[in-house]
Amino acid sequence: MPKEGIFCRVINGGRLSAGDMLEYRPKILQVKVITLSDRASKGEYADKSGPVLEQMAEAFFSEAGRQLAIDKAIIPDDPDQLRALILEYCDKNADIIFTTGGTGIGPRDITPDVIKPLLDKEIPGIMEMIRVKYGMQFPNALVSRSLAGVISKTLVYTLPGNPKAAAEYAGEIFKTIEHSFRMLHEIDWH
Questions:
Q1: SS3 state of residue 135
Q2: Residues 85/114, Cβ–Cβ less than 8 Å
Q3: Global pTM exceeds 0.85
């Protein structure tokens, strides 16, 4: 197997001839970060976990040599707004959606309840491992209801609103991203 070159997928069949020009257009990953917080959405509180996720995504994908565009939104803990935004991002072919906030057991913690029914496939192992890993040291981590899954070809991860916890979760999630992309897009990498 070659170790250099550009791997691509044929989207439209046709004939190529010697001297034909091909244009390389690298995929720009579409990453969406949604912060759920009643107070931050009103400007009463600064969003801290959303920027942490943005910085981590930029660093991870830059190191991997990938280009990305990040969009962010801050919304209240409102199920209708969250559902609409998730569906909008998926319709616009987002590659990854991270939410932060609303994963606990409080009365306004609605994120997993809204997103789980939208998933085509849940990926339980990631969040189970994170809860066990960090729950052994910090038992409060075991109360998280975070989840991971897929809607169409979009990876969706719901993370806690605490910036430190969001960073810990994202650090584990990024270890699985490339493999997840290959599986979603049926790229045989073995």
A1: helix
A2: no
A3: yes
